[in-house]
Amino acid sequence: MAVLAATDRQARPVLGDRGRAVLRTAVESDRGSLTVVVAGAPELTRTLDLVVRREPSGQVENGPRRAELIDARLAESEAAVTGAVPVTGAPDLLAGIAVAARGTPGTLLVLDSGITTTDPLDLRLIGWEADPAEIVERLRTADLLPDLRGWDVVLVGLGRVAGGQAAPGTAQLRWLERFWTAVCAAAGARSCVVDPVLERPADPDPTIRSTALVPVPVVATVAGPGGVVETTLPDSLLGFGPGSADLAPDAAAALAPVIAAYRSGPSRVLVAGFVAHWGSESYRAELSQRRADAVARLLGSLGVPAADLTARGRGAADGPAASTTGGRFDEAKVVANGIRRVVVTVEPRR
Hints:
This protein is of the alpha/beta class and 350 residues long. Helix content is 31%, strand content 18%. The protein contains 10 helices and 13 strands. It is elongated and about 85 Å long.
């Protein structure tokens, strides 16, 4: 069983090494079928018998042509997957998985970027800083999880994008893996593995442009007057979880522009932490300070002396209007405004 959301914002689906291995095992063992479910386009659903048979009798082929026919059946199966055309609108991948899982349990290949724009998994609203466990719990409470009991799930091609959608960075790929494996576990899957496909993506039909783009956080560096260099680091790139000041293992990579600016000449470095307007003022001040301190410590480990470093927590310096709508906290607005961030300023010493 394979499920995918063939949209104009992701590369054409591929089976990947694990998917091809699953199909080869099924074909060589003379059992099963492949059903390709395109989320949001039920008319494209297609089922192929994976048993290698003789023509015209339909008996299982065990003769000299068996190897040739196995290769042909595998090629036909892969073509059924890669030939899925982009559909209009924003297909619901979660609903597509639920449809596919109604079949007899076996192996479910989820061939998708994992970047969704349909409620309740609209990443434009959820943001890359959200806790996957909390999202999955909300899905469970709302009875929106598919029933994956008995299924072995293979997530193929997470993060493979096209059609103008920005590619997720390392932190976002890690978030996608955590989220979708959490969905699998909560839905009762027997197993769940990730196949990080490295094949070069092929753009879908360029004439179709329907699905919304999902903003992907990036490091922004601006050189100002007097040699001042300001680098803005979104929390999701640093790896901060909700209420946490723990950096991701690869957070140092995001600080490369800061280190380059510091090494250009004698400088002082100011690290400022910003959080959303949520919780008490003391909570916001304390969390923003801990995050600024964490980045400062990392800069210290990268060669910036403590004497050149200053870390300050700015709290919710953007004010309540940037984080709320009608007086209520608005996560989508926080994500859109890039509120949660650490800003590092490198100033030349005079």
